[in-house]
Amino acid sequence: MKAVYATDLSAASEAAIENETCLECLGRIGVEELHLVTVVPDNVHAGTPGIDHVKRRRRALDRYQEVIEGAGLGVETHVVRGTPHRRINGIAESVGADLSIVSSRGKSPLENRLIGSTTRNLARTTVVPLLVNRIERGVDDPALVEKHLFERTLYATDFSENADRAFEAFSYLRHATQEATLVHVQTETSPGPDGDADPGQRLAELADRLEEWDVDATTDVRRGDPVDEILAVEAEYEPTTTLLGSRGRSRLRRLLLGSVSESVIANADGNVLLVPPERTV
Fold it and tell me: What is the dihedral of CA 149, 185, 234, 3, to 10 degrees?
């Protein structure tokens, strides 16, 4: 597997990239090659007196590269200019990446209101599964909130086609996942699976599949607001990563602020792995 790791060279990004446990978890799910990407935004002028932005970023990436190679992973570095989420998506497509990774402190009221953040824009437009790696907030020397990325995974499903696609991520996550919690939130407009199938039974069937992979699985059916209930389950079970699918990549979806996936990414305490819909040609 190939992964694109986007970094803004902040202390938060450095904490994630230089963490040996995090790198080991990526290797365990099959990541063999990391593409480190840093984007010089268009509004940062190349001719800023006394500052060579590209050279500074290349030096930083060289330092990260040594750490990653020491963990046994291959590395390529990319310093590019443009709009961050567009360039990150573009590189993911061009190198044939299986995963994109971005660090985020999250849970900031200001960040939750801004639609221009790289993390939120990536959540809306990502072309491959996106791992939002949560970093501590409010400290000068930040660390990863959860170093063992996929050890305990919370999977949220509405039984849609894309939620099923997200579940298939366990085909590689299972090599790092020991425990999984499967949750469905019933609402008036989305009570459960199509037809007469019982949501509890459907979750049990998924749990059986995970048990065959030696993953201990529990199920939880709730009723209420999907975002509130998913976050409540996260607080109760304390997973290291929450896995869910996004609904689509339409222009309308990208403009809406209220999607379940974006709200979970903005407010979750731990990491979030977002699986986008399969691309149509």
Answer: 20
Question: Do 68 and 161 belong together in one domain?
Answer: no
Q: Examine residue 141 and state whether it is found in any structural domain, yes or no.
A: no
Residues 102 and 185 in one domain: no
30 in any annotated domain: yes
Q: Quote the number of domains for the chain.
A: 2
Average pLDDT, the chain: 82
Evaluate whether residue 107 is within a structural domain: yes
Q: Report the predicted TM-score, pTM, of the whole model to 2 decimal places.
A: 0.85
Question: What average pLDDT score do residues 150-161 get?
Answer: 93
- Which residue range(s) make up the domain with 162? 152-275
Q: Is residue 147 part of a domain?
A: no
